[in-house]
Amino acid sequence: ACDTCRSKKTKCGNERPRCASCAKNGWPCSYDPRLDHSLLILDKLNQTLEKLAEVDREVKGQTAAATRSSPSCGHGHGHRHSAGACNVTPPSPSDCLEVPTAFGSAEAILTWPIFHGRWPHNFLSQEILIGSLPSGSGAQGDHHHRNSLKRGGKRASQGINEENVPGLVDRFLQLVHSKNPVFHTRQIREAARRVAEDGVGWDASSCIVLLACALGAVARPFNPSSEVGLLSGRTSLDDTFDFLETGDAFYQVARKRLGLLDQSIMAGQCHMLSGIYLMYTLHPLEAWSAFHQAGSVYSLYLRSQAALQERRSNGGVDVDITPSQSILERRLEQRLYWTVLKSECEIRVQLDLPQSELCKLDYPFLFPSPPTPGSPAAESPEEHHKQGPASTTSTSTSSQLLSLAASTSTCASQSAEEQTWFYYLSEIALRRIENRILNVFYKKDHQHWLQMDLATMVSAAEEIEAQMESWYASLPTSIRFDNNSDSDHPHQAPASDELRYVTEGRSLLIRSLLYRPFLYYAIHAQAHGWNPTTTLALQGFVQKSLANCLAVNTGNAMTHRHHGTWYALRESVTTALMLLAAHAADLITTTTVEGLDDNQQYARPLQICVERLRYWEAEAPPDVACAREIIEELMGAAGMDRNYY
Asked: In angstroms, rounded to a whole number, what is the distance separating the alpha carbons of residues 107 and 456?
């Protein structure tokens, strides 16, 4: 809506340059430029996903006519539809919101024939599951020396200081909320003010504040510098113990309130935040439990909202909800849906754990709607401070481009908000692209790749690769990660801020999944042979696969803690194992890839991987240390030095 219609609360047709309502009444008509940018990125992302649907139909052998005749799943341009409207029927196959079991995990590569069956198919996940057992179960292994530092040990004795709440909430909004905007900023600031003034209550609002404080305590500003060779003798626990201790104290108080929550959208927010905190502190199994609970609670909430809307449409009940409140709740619902869904999908790629019912709902919003000016979600720090609460001291540094709370410029805060939303929308688009790759190539284990027609695999991969390029072309400059195009080695140039860094990491992970089947094919299909006409395309994908492995293990920001730290460690392991498999099959010497000219260059990313894993393993689940030992064993067998100097 235009600014005038929004202020007068009248219906707006969104005509440009002047809407029909303003033209009819002689009113001035203008639009906030931020909305134009947001709608533009939404439109471009929609176009990309429409093309992906065509690719998906081709791969599945579905004709366009058959698709048109099938029941609509509601995932088209429906992001303007009414709130909470969803069906409980499964989405159409072209959406692929349900992720196949963990055939794309790091440990799946250990079962490739090139490694001669030395490790079982679930070797690393077994370590995680056994490591999650309580002490005294008799199942604790050598890797559980971290038990004394886990929750319930030394850190649990520290209490919380309520005077720190405003500052920690500000830090949460700066460093965490930007990547998972499942709250209105005004909502959490007002809740933090009440906690600071009246103390911690037992309600959901206090639980949200406590979880935000826990995350604010452990989150650190982003530093993109290379840390290769600088981690000797260091561990993540030693470097951040005090921050982890403070965060755990707040989390323990919040946990006591999680069991008191009802089936509301605020309960879903609490469970979601709990899962994010557990991912920040490298507890993926516990995080899955929290995400699954969030998905279950939110599924029930959406079903209830759909039932209520159906009754309202039949004239059976009259609910007093103002239009503005309804719009705000709708946008919050959309954000929570996509954040919970993508969090569940991410874990399922690595661990064979069930998803909640959320992925089976026929949700009508392709993307969440961005906030509008004047909404609580779009509130700037200056507007917040003008409304009463005294400003609090923020502990962020100038390297953070998302310092919404500490910003002294309205333009700067608006720019940060735009970057946040562009990142969030692009993340959702990438999630859907990744789900399509998983459903095309990873519904069965790697043996299925040799049974697939190579020409069909190439065609499908080229189409999805084209959609990745289309996705990247749709990105605004604020989250592009190719700003170092003048570098001789672009993959060695770090992204300049965290959102670019995370977006680039997600892109590399997806390309790794896309190219992996072709590397496997090149290693194991010699006895089967392949069509000579596709040999060149196969070699191209193998080169891209190896180059992608180099891009993952560059050594930049290795000690940075974030929501995806454990995933990044697993991806580092994945690419290291792919390089080792390629080396064992003599593909390194026969494939021309920049950065792999000799064995020393080949060993460098493996050494970086080992250094990174060793830094985190004292705090991480046992799979990280086990993976590091496997990589070192394979490097030793290949005659490579395991340490980087």
From this structure: 26
Identify the burial level of 329 via C-beta atoms within 10 angstroms of its C-beta, where 0-12 means exposed, 13-18 middle and 19 or more buried.
Answer: middle
Beta bridge partners, 21, equal none
Q: How far is CA 288 from the centre of its chain?
A: 13
Per-residue b or e along 119-150, where b marks 16 or more CB atoms closer than 10 Å to that residue's CB: eebbbbbebbbbbbeeeeeeebeebbebeebb
DSSP character for 275? Answer: H
Tell me whether residue 50 is exposed, middle or buried, using C-beta atoms within 10 angstroms of its C-beta: 0 to 12, 13 to 18, 19 or more. Answer: middle
pTM for the predicted model, two decimal places? 0.80
Residue of 528, 644, 524, 623 whose CA lies nearest to 570: 623
DSSP state of 494: P
Cβ atoms 5, 12 nearer than 8 A: yes
In this structure, the chain runs to a length of 645
As a three-state string, the secondary structure of 346-391 is HHHHHCCCCCCHHHHCECCCCCCCCCCCCCHHHCCHHHHHHCCCCC
Are 511 and 471 in contact by the 8 Å Cβ rule? The answer is: no
Distance, CA of 298 to CA of 305 (rounded, Å): 10
Report the C-alpha gap between 177 and 213 in whole angstroms. Answer: 12
Buried b vs exposed e over 552-588: b needs ≥16 C-beta within 10 Å? bbbbbbbbbbbbbbbbbbbbbbbbbbbbbbbbbbebb
**3-state SS class at 442:** coil
Nearest to 552 by CA among 54, 106, 8, 246: 106
The whole-angstrom distance between residue 449's C-alpha and the CA centroid of its chain comes to 27
Select from 365, 347, 463 the least CA-distant residue to 99: 347
DSSP, res 106: S
Pick the closest to residue 420 from 365, 494, 361, 339 (CA basis): 339
Structure-token pair, residue 193 = 């003010």
Nearest to 480 by CA among 469, 489, 488: 469
DSSP 3-state assignment of 114? Answer: helix
Contact 279, 564 (CB under 8 A): yes
Structure-block tokens of residue 241? 């113990």
Distances from the Cα of 449 to the Cαs of 122, 338, 365, 527, 612, in angstroms? Answer: 20, 31, 34, 14, 31
Q: What's the average pLDDT block by block, 10 residues per block, for the chain (645 residues)? A: 82 84 90 64 60 52 37 35 43 56 88 92 89 63 42 53 90 89 85 89 94 96 89 93 94 94 89 96 95 91 82 62 59 86 90 86 72 50 43 34 38 65 84 89 90 89 91 82 48 62 92 95 72 79 92 91 95 95 82 59 89 95 95 90 61
Structure tokens at 465: 């690769």
The answer to whether the beta carbons of residues 45 and 471 sit under 8 Å apart is yes
Q: What is d(CA 169, CA 193) in angstroms, rounded to the nearest whole number?
A: 10
Q: What is the DSSP letter of 556?
A: B
490-516 burial by CB neighbour count: b if 16+ within 10 A, else e? ebebbbebbbbbbbbbbbbbbbbbbbb
The tally of CA atoms less than 13 A away on the side-chain side of residue 300 is 12
CB neighbour list of residue 226: distance below 8 Å, 6 or more residues apart = 494, 554, 555, 556
Rounded distance, CA 444 to CA 103, Å? Answer: 7
Determine if residue 68 is left, alpha or beta; phi over 0 gives left, psi from -120 to 50 gives alpha, anything else beta: alpha
